[in-house]
Recover the amino acids of this structure.
């Protein structure tokens, strides 16, 4: 599986030059525009393809994710951005028909390699989902779940500390400190999503994947989560999928634009939103479709 | 930002710590994972093992019922026994002693046997039931009187058990149930080709009997058919009607809730309670006859109604609202909308539910014990008020019988019962697959 | 046993020679009614068309012509059939009363028991079950009167129903006019019919409660409730006749309750672990194709009639256990609670597994994803997230399974035995509530001895216990499903 990635990047996309594909046509074999590599990568993806049965969901995507940055994935629905995200912690494994090829390395180790344990991978690459999905347990147990299963806390005081720290970092402590034993499902939507973030950071991962974390929330809750993401950047690499371009512009440093399974363009968020180089990106940004 | 844990003064970051601890826990966790998975596999294997054990033990004890030992005898329809006056009156012939013909034929087969007790033992090789077959033959064609023919007549159940290997020859004579002398006769008959196992037609054409070799399931099958006929006739229309009301018309109020709670509860009430209801209401209050398929059918109707209603409602729910809206939009009334559009689309699902309900009713016995369908009934029932029994109750009756040969009959009856259930369920599956629609 | 066969609840018919109304008569009547109905349909349809001048004028009718026909037909058939049914429910009793009234006064003063014996003779005579020369003169006279009254009743029924059918049919036919809202009226009738059908469930429950409660109350007049519920001695076979000395059988049902619980407990010990783990494996681990094969195979167990399990427990598992016990030096009764419990457990496996399967698959995938996303293994996810989330539903399912185990009849009747032992040893024979109901009510019986009434009292207990289990379980399951909908 681990091929020579850098050589393969340029393999496809000979027929369509940058900016030449009209938006109404599919960008088959599109070559990515912009700089896909970074100087301090955590995750390096090369030529990732995902098939669901006969259907190809993403095609030849190559992208680096850097330490301490927020990278946003944008694009019209069905463009494969969530699928790509779920490759990074091998959550696609839970879908029987999904097949992933190409290479994805985390700190130089291929995550789809036999030697890479999926449990450990997911402990290192945490994930927050589109819909808040707290377990039907108490607030405390929700946060303590990860440390418990991984054996991260030696005793109860240590666990209490992890729970408290995680809730504090997720900005939820003040709101829930008096009702830690109430069910997590009883919190409001925004609180639930922050609980899920607290749950994720309680494991101390290296990367946090966020799959449209605010799509089910109201604007105020969204603003809180966005602030939180900005803070979390100090310690983690964050990869966020969003269908809101404004959100991408607000929270991310880099932005990747996906279109029908192709990674069309990557660049600094400023550049993508002010000066997109690819026609498809520009059309999407300017709202001509999407 | 405070760190989640108070780590000693090493350079380990929280993420590195996580990596280390997770790494450490992996072996233990994967062992637990495998163990858990094995529990699941063991449970499934146990379940499948039970299925296999059940079927193999029933089939292995029951398959021999399809064969029965018959004796080939030279029957002489002696006129002096059957019709001494030569009147050819069916009444005279009908009351003649046909067992004498079989005895005579046996004597002819073994001319060397003498003495009353020896002869009596010899006569026991043939079944008591053979004479009824002979009588039927002569009554069917009275010209047989005076003629002779070579005929296969039913052998005794002990002979049958020996032929099927159920009685071991090696056992001492007194526990074997068959004497050495009988054994010698049987061997001679087998060597002459006069004793062999043939297809057991009478098992499928006769009613119950005290004699295992004569007992058949046809009476019970007829009883089951009559009972299920009543059940289907009542339960299906009523069940569908109730489902239509609850699904299409009923307003959301307490009355509807009450009906729903009742239906769901009745689906889980022990079947024997329905038997008590049948006994108290149909038999004692309305004075309907005991042991009758009519009452059995009524009781089973009440029992299967919830099943049919629930299945029919599910089928109605499966019809998408767009079709209802389309019909109403064309100006159809609600009744027309249901009758012309919803019902035809939901019908396969309803039929499937009805078949499954019928299958359940076919296998039910406890409530029928309460209303007296447990009597020993030889005659084949022909009407809804004839005393009758049903297949599962027949199984119960035979399972209680002490004769060893009834064990085989019981398993045979179970096989017949399971055969019917298989056909019904297969029909339901085919129906579902053929008409299943995904909207 | 030639006992006094006094029919309970004043039932008019004894067991011996049951006479049903000549079925031909009633069926002919129904057939005539159906023909009349068909005629009414045509007549109603024709009249509606005739009123507007044939098919061309049909648009002037409020409804399609068929609806006018249907309205006429429904009014012709339904009231007549209802009257016929009512007549048949009560004519037997009325005829009997009239026969009794006509009999000599010395017969009338007989006790109820003796009277019903005489009436049995009368009916047997009418049915030809006993030859006329064996009957006494007064019985013969009564039989003649009986026959006469019965044919009179049939004649009256025929006359009444036919005239109702004709009268109402003609009335509706006469009322037909183009403005008559026939479709609405037909639909209203249909709707009423549907409502009646759906209330049958309520009537069934009411019927169960009344019939069981009524007889139970009579039982509790003889045996105090406290003795029944808390007594430790059960030997109903003693009480053959109330006037026998020292015949008061013991009706303490505690041994029955413990026996029932013992067997149901054994069954759950088999069914819950096997069913749950099978469900977990099939819902979470098994490949789709494996699941598609194994799940129906397991459900075969649910489709097998209980009598087959009874046979299996009594004639295959029971002897096997006894042999195994002998080999191990244990005394295993040939009708042990163990055999019945084990086999019942096997029967309940698919019940538990398919319910648990439903509940597990109802747990949203997002919860599993959340757990996997944190790095949990599959078994950790199942044990710590999916199973706890499905627990309320599974508990509901297990409660339903317990209710089923308690109410199961054939297995225990065939395999558990009759001795009311107060024991917790599964190797001994115990008896259960359902077994006793069957033993007390099957066979020759008198309907108002404490012995038979006890069966109804047991039935009442059984009904109440299973009913409350069902209500709790259904409520729990319903709440659970709503949570994830």
């Amino acid at each position: 599986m681990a091929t020579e990635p850098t050589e393969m990047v340029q393999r496809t996309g000979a027929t369509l030059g940058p900016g030449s594909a009209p938006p109404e046509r599919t960008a088959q074999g599109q070559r990515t525009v912009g700089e896909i590599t970074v100087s301090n990568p955590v995750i390096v993806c090369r030529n990732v393809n995902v098939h669901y049965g006969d259907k190809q969901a993403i095609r030849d995507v190559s992208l680096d994710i850097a330490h301490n940055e927020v990278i946003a994935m944008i694009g019209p629905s069905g463009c494969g951005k969530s699928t790509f995200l779920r490759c990074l912690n091998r959550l696609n494994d839970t879908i029987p028909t999904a097949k992933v090829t190409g290479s994805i390395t985390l700190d130089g180790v291929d995550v789809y390699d036999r030697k890479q344990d999926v449990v450990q991978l997911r402990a290192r690459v945490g994930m927050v989902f589109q819909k808040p999905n707290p377990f039907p347990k108490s607030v405390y147990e929700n946060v303590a779940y990860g440390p418990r299963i991984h054996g991260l806390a030696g005793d109860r005081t240590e666990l209490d500390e992890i729970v408290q720290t995680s809730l504090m970092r997720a900005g939820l402590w003040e709101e829930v400190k008096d009702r830690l034993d109430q069910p997590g499902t009883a919190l409001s939507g925004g609180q639930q999503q922050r609980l899920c973030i607290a749950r994720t950071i309680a494991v101390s991962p290296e990367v946090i994947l966020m799959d449209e974390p605010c799509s089910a929330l109201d604007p105020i809750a969204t603003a809180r989560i966005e602030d939180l993401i900005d803070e979390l950047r100090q310690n983690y690499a964050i990869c966020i999928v969003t269908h809101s371009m404004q959100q991408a512009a607000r929270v991310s440093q880099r932005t990747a634009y996906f279109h029908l399974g192709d990674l069309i363009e990557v660049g600094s968020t400023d550049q993508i939103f002010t000066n997109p180089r690819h026609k498809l990106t520009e059309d999407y940004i300017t709202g001509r479709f999407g | 930002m405070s760190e989640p844990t108070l780590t000693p003064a090493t350079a380990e970051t929280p993420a590195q710590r996580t990596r280390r601890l997770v790494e450490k826990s992996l072996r233990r966790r994967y062992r637990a994972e495998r163990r858990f998975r094995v529990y699941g596999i063991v449970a499934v294997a146990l379940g499948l093992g039970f299925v296999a054990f059940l079927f193999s033990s029933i089939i292995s004890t029951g398959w021999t019922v399809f064969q029965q030992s018959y004796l080939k005898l030279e029957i002489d329809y002696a006129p002096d026994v059957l019709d001494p006056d030569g009147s050819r009156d069916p009444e005279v012939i009908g009351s003649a002693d046909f067992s004498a013909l079989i005895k005579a034929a046996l004597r002819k087969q073994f001319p060397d046997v003498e003495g009353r007790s020896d002869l009596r033992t010899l006569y026991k090789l043939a079944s008591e039931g053979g004479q009824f077959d002979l009588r039927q033959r002569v009554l069917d064609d009275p010209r047989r009187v005076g003629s002779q023919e070579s005929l296969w007549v039913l052998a005794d159940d002990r002979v049958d058990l020996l032929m099927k290997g159920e009685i071991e020859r090696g056992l001492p004579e007194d526990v074997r149930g068959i004497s050495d002398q009988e054994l010698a006769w049987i061997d001679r008959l087998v060597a002459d080709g006069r004793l062999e196992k043939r297809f057991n037609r009478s098992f499928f054409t006769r009613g119950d009997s005290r004699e295992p070799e004569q007992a058949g399931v046809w009476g019970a099958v007829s009883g089951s058919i009559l009972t299920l006929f009543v059940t289907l006739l009542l339960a299906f229309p009523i069940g569908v009607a109730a489902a239509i009301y609850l699904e299409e018309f009923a307003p959301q109020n307490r009355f509807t809730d009450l009906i729903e709670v009742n239906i769901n509860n009745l689906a889980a009430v022990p079947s024997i309670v329905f038997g008590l209801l049948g006994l108290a209401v149909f038999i004692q209050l309305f004075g309907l006859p005991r042991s009758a398929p009519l009452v059995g059918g009524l009781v089973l109707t009440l029992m299967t109604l919830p099943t049919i209603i629930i299945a029919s409602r599910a089928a109605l729910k499966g019809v998408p609202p767009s079709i209802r809206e389309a019909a109403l939009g064309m100006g159809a009334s609600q009744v027309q909308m249901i009758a012309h559009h919803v019902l035809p689309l939901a019908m396969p699902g309803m039929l499937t539910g009805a078949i499954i309900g019928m299958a359940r009713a076919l296998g039910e016995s406890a409530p029928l014990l309460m209303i007296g369908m447990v009597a020993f009934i030889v005659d084949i029932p022909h009407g809804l008020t004839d005393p009758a029994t049903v297949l599962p109750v027949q199984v119960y009756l035979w399972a209680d019988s002490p004769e060893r040969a009834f064990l085989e009959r019981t398993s045979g009856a179970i096989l017949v019962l399971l055969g019917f259930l298989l056909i019904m369920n297969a029909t339901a599956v085919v129906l579902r697959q053929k008409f299943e629609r995904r909207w | 046993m030639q006992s006094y066969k006094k029919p309970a609840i004043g039932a008019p018919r004894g067991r011996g020679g049951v006479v049903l109304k000549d079925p031909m008569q009633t069926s002919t009547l129904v057939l005539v009614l159906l023909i009349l109905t068909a005629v009414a349909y045509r007549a109603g349809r024709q009249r509606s068309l005739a009123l507007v001048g044939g098919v061309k004028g049909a648009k002037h009718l409020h409804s399609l012509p068929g609806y006018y026909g249907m309205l006429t037909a429904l009014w012709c058939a339904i009231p007549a059939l209802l009257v016929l049914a009512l007549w048949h429910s009560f004519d037997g009793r009325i005829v009997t009363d009239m026969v009794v009234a006509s009999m000599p006064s010395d017969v009338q003063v007989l006790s109820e028991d003796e009277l019903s014996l005489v009436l049995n003779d009368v009916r047997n005579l009418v049915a030809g079950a006993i030859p006329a020369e064996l009957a006494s003169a007064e019985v013969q006279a009564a039989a003649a009167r009986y026959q006469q009254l019965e044919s009179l009743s049939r004649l009256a029924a025929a006359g009444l129903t036919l005239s109702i059918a004709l009268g109402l049919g003609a009335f509706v036919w006469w009322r037909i006019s183009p403005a008559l809202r026939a479709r609405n009226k037909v639909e209203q009738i249909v709707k009423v019919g549907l409502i009646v059908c759906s209330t049958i469930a309520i009537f069934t429950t009411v019927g169960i409660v009344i019939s069981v409660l009524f007889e139970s109350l009579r039982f509790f007049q003889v045996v105090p409730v406290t003795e029944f519920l808390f007594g430790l001695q059960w030997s109903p076979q003693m009480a053959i006749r109330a006037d026998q000395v020292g015949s008061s059988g013991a009706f303490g049902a505690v041994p029955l309750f413990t026996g029932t619980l013992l067997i149901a407990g054994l069954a759950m010990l088999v069914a819950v672990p096997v069913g749950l783990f099978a469900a977990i494996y099939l819902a979470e681990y098994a490949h789709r194709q494996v699941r598609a094969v194994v799940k129906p195979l397991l459900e075969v167990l649910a489709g097998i009639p209980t009598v087959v399990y009874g046979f299996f427990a009594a004639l295959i598992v029971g002897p096997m256990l006894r042999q195994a016990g002998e080999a191990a030096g244990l005394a295993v009764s040939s009708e042990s609670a163990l055999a019945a419990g084990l086999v019942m457990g096997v029967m309940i496996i698919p019940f538990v597994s398919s319910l648990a399967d439903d509940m597990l698959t109802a747990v949203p995938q997002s919860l599993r994803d959340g757990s996997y996303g944190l790095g949990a293994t599959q078994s950790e996810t199942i044990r710590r997230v999916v199973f706890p989330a499905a627990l309320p539903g599974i508990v509901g399912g297990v409660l339903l399974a317990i209710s089923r185990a308690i109410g199961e009849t054939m297995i225990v009747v065939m395999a558990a035995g009759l001795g009311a032992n107060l024991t917790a040893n599964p190797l001994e024979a115990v008896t259960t509530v359902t077994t006793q109901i069957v033993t007390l009510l099957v066979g020759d019986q008198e309907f108002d001895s404490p012995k038979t009434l006890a069966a109804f009292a047991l039935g009442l207990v059984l009904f109440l216990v299973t009913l409350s289990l069902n209500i709790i379980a259904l409520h729990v399951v319903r709440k659970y499903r709503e949570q994830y909908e």
Summary: Chain C has three domains: 15-180, 181-222, 250-484. Strands of chain C lie at 234-235, 250-251.
